[in-house]
Amino acid sequence: MPDHVIESVEELRTAYGEASELSLKKSLDRLDGHCRRFIALSPFVVLASAGADGRVDCSPRGDPAGFVAVLDDRTVLLPDRRGNNRTDSLTNVLENPYVGMLFMIPGVNETLRLNGRATLTTDPAHLEPLAVKGRAPRSGLLVQVEEVLLQCTKALVRSRLWKDESRVNRKSALPSFGRMIADHAGLPDGDAIDRRLRRKVRETLY
């Protein structure tokens, strides 16, 4: 353990100082035109949720840009596409409705943060308009906006996330996904897992 840890808000403020006036004023309780446009251009969202025990999970969600539907100034709908059926985020929402969403746009260094309360819906009236290749999502998260704010560029500038020179050679930098999963699960055949996953992406993406 380090010699000293911060254990109170007072200690935190002593270490960091007060937040700037602008950083506080930029927080909204509804979606304005800029937020709507950002969401419409975003093909990738990180969804944060927590269960009843307080354990937090982050899950990537992606689809063609604009896949998160803006229903009104205070409500967005996140479709849940086919996956591995772990339903970690959905289970969390049933236990604890508070979620956070981080919207990203390729090539744009700013991000959009949205916090609110989610409910799980299977209403066809909500889900059928979100169908892709004729398949509607099995469920969706209706998120009631409580806070939304634009995040500045520093994190993505530091990481150089969108720069071509930041791209790694996938084959030389890491073992295959199937090999890593096989190692994690104590299974012998990573190649078989890779083949199965490639087939699932081709045949069951939606």
Set down the secondary structure blueprint:
Blueprint: H1 9-16, H2 21-25, H3 33-41, E1 44-50, E2 56-62, E3 69-72, E4 75-80, H4 88-95, E5 98-104, E6 111-121, H5 124-127, E7 139-151, H6 154-159, H7 170-173, H8 177-185, H9 190-204
Antiparallel strand pairs: 1-2, 1-5, 3-4, 4-7, 5-6, 6-7
Helix pairs in contact: 8-9
Please describe what this structure looks like.
- The protein has 206 residues and is of the alpha+beta class.
- It folds into two domains: 135 residues, Electron Transport, Fmn-binding Protein, Chain A (Pnp Oxidase, Chain A), CATH 2.30.110; 37 residues, no CATH class.
- Helix content is 33%, strand content 27%.
- It has a seven-stranded antiparallel β-sheet, covered by helices on one side.
- β3 and β4 form a beta hairpin.
- α8 crosses α9.
- The protein is globular and about 55 Å long.
- The model has no long low-confidence stretch (mean pLDDT 95).
Task: Please tag this protein with its features.
7-stranded antiparallel beta sheet, Pnp Oxidase, Chain A, about 210 residues, globular, alpha+beta, about 35% helix
Short description:
This protein is an alpha+beta fold and 206 residues long. It has 9 helices and 7 strands. Strands 2-1-5-6-7-4-3 form a 7-stranded antiparallel β-sheet, covered by helices on one side.
